[in-house]
Amino acid sequence: MQDINWTALVIFVLLFAFITWLGFAAARWRRGDLDLLHEWGLGGRRFGTFITWFLLGGDLYTAYTFIAVPALAYGAGAVAFFAVPYTIVIFPILFLVFPRLWHVCHKHGYITAADFVRGRFGNRWLALAVTITGIIATMPYIALQLVGIQVVIAGLGIYGSGLAGDLPLIIAFIILAAFTYSSGLRAPASIAIVKDLLIYVTAFTAIVVIPMQLGGFEKIFAMVPPAKQLLATPGPNTTGAYGAYATLALGSALALFLYPHSITAILSANGGHAIRRNAAMLPLYSLMLGFLALFGFFAIAAGVGNDPQYAEGFKEFGNNFAVPALFLRSFPSWFVGIAFAAVGIGALVPAAIMSIAAANLYTRNIHREFINRNPTDRQEAQMAKWVSLIVKLGALVFTLFVPTKYAIYLQLLGGIWIIQTLPAVMLGAYTRWFNGWALLAGWAVGMTAGTAMAIASNLTPTYSLVIGGFDFPGYSALYTVILNLVVAAVVTPVFNASSAQRSLPDETGAADYYA
Amino acid sequence: MDTRPTSRRDGWSWWYLLFVVQFVAVLWPPFYNRIEPTLGGMPFFYWYQLLWVIIGAVLTVIVYFATEAQTRGR
């Protein structure tokens, strides 16, 4: 019944045991009072350049990324490579905008993007919009990390319906929940180091060994159907695949750092310098992401889709099983254990950070703002710990009982939603020109239009924007954030003129944005 | 009261224009959507973008050092 890969499983379990220990031990690292929210939720803002590198990398390059990007290459071909220009353009954005955000948040004790928006624009409803967007965008993302763990567990040969099959995931969840509760952000930060080492070893080994096994890149690409090797040249009157590719890259780049877990990782750094240095160093991860996309092609060339050994995996997870199948075929069992552990641990790190980020948001920007205005430090930290647990539990339940495709749709919508906070958060770091209510209006328009576009395009990322007979298919997130900005800009003078008080107070000063 | 001379004008530096290079190089697919010339068997489309990861990182390092001097120069 079960064809468990015991060698791989043993290595997998050993590595998991190690990081479990590490997650708990992390509480004592760079000691701080974990009953304070900024200690639990931001690691005390003490992470230097290297730790920030691991944390951001662990955050940005998630298990889902490792499974889904190759899966897209395997299924759709060249378009999956949008992940590379996407990661190329995120670094200037990180470099320019986020040190500013870091400084102002540090100066005023802001822990979340919503804290910042509240202080900058003086509008608690805008801040609430940012908060809710952040939370609903994060939750499907956590669920997808758990899906990533499910995929590698299946790769280890553990199938089964009902509780038996779900048990490994539940165990992983318990480990995750426990060390996050006890150590806060320090846990994923410390584990990220292990995870990244494992990922690098796996990726760099695979990029060298597998092409050798398959006879070189020329042979590999020869096996890929010609239509998938390049982007399809656009037909007349349309920007076609070119527009889709470029807008996917740019839109995803803009959205990435708006996610609460990215902001949490950024704010936990110990200074703007650490962030800028990382903008220069993180590209190493990008190179790896490019390799990952190529793994999808390796899987095609290796013919894993036709191999009956992997049929069950493909049946259950579709193209997401491409990379696990590829590794199973190409590596000895002990290395498979390492590779799968890399992916599995690579799910725990971002899941932890995401749940902490969502908890920070709820605690500061919903609970403290609207329910209990004067919590003690202890109460705040305690609340965040509980919320983080509940969020993860919700994701677990979702993963176990709802078909994966719904998590994927929600994640897609999440990207379209989170980008709507760009005007308030990213532009807010530069200028106070916009009116808070106008930003809220822009946000509402963006959210509605984005959701509508996604539904109109059958829950695929690109929407066919037709202007004067010319078709501009592109990423809905990018189109709607532009709409959002236009609305906010147009309506700002209207709100400024109509309110008795010209504009709400700005807690921050111009000098707060840089050292 | 902040009496330091703001020689660094509220965060802008001409060095930042180097970033525009990266954007243009990779966000215009017609530039690179082709197979030839291949490198080690890899079509141009792929190795061009991977190359830009490295070039982009180098550009970012340049901008970092160039602007750090400005930040520190007070």
Report on this structure.
The complex is a heterodimer of chains A (515) and B (74). Chain A is globular, with a radius of gyration of 23 Å. With 515 residues, chain A is an all-alpha fold. Chain A has a two-stranded antiparallel ribbon with strand order 1-2. Chain A contains 23 helices and two strands. Chain A has one domain (6-234, 242-403): Up-down Bundle (Sodium/glucose cotransporter), CATH 1.20.1730.10. Chain B is mainly α. Chain B has a domain at 30-72. Chain B has two helices and no strands. Chain B is elongated and about 45 Å long. Chain B starts with 16 loop residues before the first helix and ends with a helix. Residues 1-9 of chain B have low confidence and may be disordered. Classes of the chains: A mainly alpha (515), B mainly alpha (74). Chain A binds chain B through residues 78, 81, 84-85, 87-89, 91-92, 95-96, 100, 216-221, 229-231, 233, 241-242, 245-246, 249-250, 273, 276-277, 279-281, 283-284, 286-287, 290, 294, 510-511, 513-515, and chain B through 2, 8, 10-11, 16, 19, 22-23, 26-30, 33-35, 38, 40-43, 45-46, 49-50, 52-54, 56-57, 60-61, 63-64, 68, 71.
Describe the structure concisely for a colleague.
The complex is a heterodimer of chains A (515) and B (74). With 515 residues, chain A is mainly alpha-helical.
- Total helix count of chain A? 23
Give me the side-by-side strand order of the main sheet of chain A.
1-2
Beta-strand proportion of chain A: under 5%
| Termini Cα gap of chain A | 62 Å
Radius of gyration of chain A: 23 Å
Q: Measured on Cα atoms, how large is the radius of gyration of chain B?
A: 18 Å
Work out the helicity level of chain A. over 70%
Largest sheet of chain B: none
Largest inter-chain interface?
Answer: A-B, 45 and 36 residues
Taken from the alpha-carbon principal axes, the silhouette of chain B is elongated
Extended strand count of chain A: 2
Structural classification of chain A: mainly alpha
Mean pLDDT of chain A: 88
- Strand percentage of chain B: under 5%
Instruction: Domain count of chain A, please report it.
Output: 1
- Count of runs of 4 or more consecutive helical residues of chain B: 2
Ends distance of chain B: 16 Å
Average predicted local confidence, pLDDT of chain B: 80
| Class computed from helices, strands and strand pairing of chain B | mainly alpha
CATH top level of chain A is Mainly Alpha
CATH topology of chain A: Sodium/glucose cotransporter
